[in-house]
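Pinned message: reference record for E3 ubiquitin-protein ligase
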Amino acid sequence: EFTSKKITNKLVQQIQEPLVLSSGALPAWCEELTHSCPFLFPFETRHLYFSCTAFGASRSIVWLQTQRDVTLERQRAPGLSPRRDDPHEFRVGRLKHERVKVPRGDQLLPWAMQVMRIHADRKSILEVEFQGEEGTGLGPTLEFYALVAAELQRKDLGMWLCDDDVDPTNGPSLDLGEGAKPPGYYVRRASGLFPSPLPQDSTAADRAAQHYWFLGVFLAKVLQDNRLVDLPLSHPFLKLLCQGEVVN
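Predicted structure (tokens):
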């Protein structure tokens, strides 16, 4: 155990300063220690620091107000009615929501790539509707993320390493949200998904590079909007994504 309780408490104290956090004026040692010596802090503290600093000032302000609301709600006596907004309370930093419509089926992945290409540098919350359907809000948005995560696991994309000893003609069908698919439609490995080695200067490598770019933007948006997706990446690949070393 290399965690330091004193440094952890000091970092949490810095995060709890609204003016410092919202203005991006945290001391330089906060960034340096969390990146170069993450073992000094427990995971909860590192996740807390990431959540309130990684997405810009607007998200930091909203995070502060959300934490304040949670604290006030916990301090309320049990059995009382839910807290109502104080008309004299001044709130800033309401996040903008942007809504897009996408189709289901075979065109979902190309449309999702186009949406993320346009939305990659924006700080607003992404909401998704499906064409020809009336549902809006959180439900369709979460379904969109789940369906795109399933599309990224397709074998025909050529992104992931496959087990040669698996017979694609045998085995149960698999449903990841778009209906039952035949065996071999998705890449399923016990150790998780790992990039497939592809010939350099080939069309397959260029196509895979576009999908990996989309994967990065997609996961970044998942983290930014606080969504969850089921994407079973392998531990070595996660280490590479986090700039760690993979030991054979």
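Pinned by admin. Summary line: Strands lie at 97-102, 125-130, 174-175, 180-181.
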